[in-house]
Give the backbone structure.
Amino acid sequence: MENQNQFLKEKPSRLFLSYLIPSISATLVTSIYILADTMMIGKGVGAAGIAALNLLLPIFSVYIGTGILFGVGGSVLFSVSKGRGEEEKAREYFTASVILAVLASLLYMWIFTAFFDPITLFLGRNKGTEQYVKEYGMYLKLTPAIFLFSSFLQAFVRNDGAPKVSMAAVITGGVVNVFLDYFFIFPLNMGIGGAAFATVLGYGLTTCILCTHFFSRKNTLKLIRTEGLVRKCFDVVRHGFSSFLLEESNGIIMLLFNRQLLSYVGDLGVVVYGIVSNSALVVTSINNGISQAAQPILAVNYGAGEKKRVALAMKYGVITAVLFGVGFTLTGLFFPEQITSMFVNPTPEIMEMSTKAVRIYFLSFLPLGLNMLCSTYLQCVMKPGNAMAVCLLRGFILSSILVVVLPVIWGVDGIWAVMAVTETVTLFAAVFFWRKAARG
């Protein structure tokens, strides 16, 4: 009840700011796991290592996205129920979410262990990347539960009024991951397999720290016997599916881009896309943090019927997303060479292609944050269908069409322009749904 009163009585501006830094820190450090791998692999293994890692990132997206599916879907229902004073129902949604997360972890371990070779061939594995894909994948295919529960628990711990625990967990895991990346790749000479092992250990530490919340006196996350379990599982999936699509869109976009770039310019294009996509992971993570800072405030106040507080929380989220979007875009336009050099020791060919790619792709960061925030808002006000429509537009429909059509018109530059066009068009739909929901 104390956590619920905090969301309903404290000033929305102060509440949003108190959640903003922990939420951004948590989501940003999550992306640093992959970012650190990319930088260390680029410097210690080479461009082929970056290409291999980029081919495997869709599997990461499946793990993390599924954790978000059940974590965000369940925690939205958890928070809305608490806002309505339905404590037992909130715990039933948490129980249903945990069951789904456990079952998905077991399923993924079986799928990626039994079918790793055909899956990675479909993702674009070739002779140049085969050794590195298998070395990294040896760790990745056996540990879905570690990645899945990291994102799953972050959502619930944050919605249970403990954003600092979530922040501490991912920062600690991230710092350990970066240190072990360096230690395993360079002094121990473990190559790309060392980077994978470091990432598993970092995520494992994050998950363990998040679990300490269950021993806190403020913890209200309890497993209980649940009536209508199947129905509640369906509700969790329905309300979390747009967030799942938001995360999975990254993996699908990576897959489509990789296949098109291999067709148009070969492995060089995949290396450059590795640079761009890892930059995009950081930007997406920060915007995700902005949305997650607003999410529990929006959900609890909507559940309590406090429409003015919902509107104020959304206002602060929009301002923050716009400011960050402008900053990210300007960084890409003015410093593309420096961004490239962070990841690899670039050849002239890589630098020439990457400079143009960064400048074009970073234009997508202007509308990106607003699209993510609108999707989160629509989830919190019980408009999961509209939220899903926004995610389908940017994650599947527009990007899938444009990644085929634009290269025919503009060549490889058309590939780099796909996300800028996709995010801009999606923004019109996202704002329409947001304004319609706010009027209702």
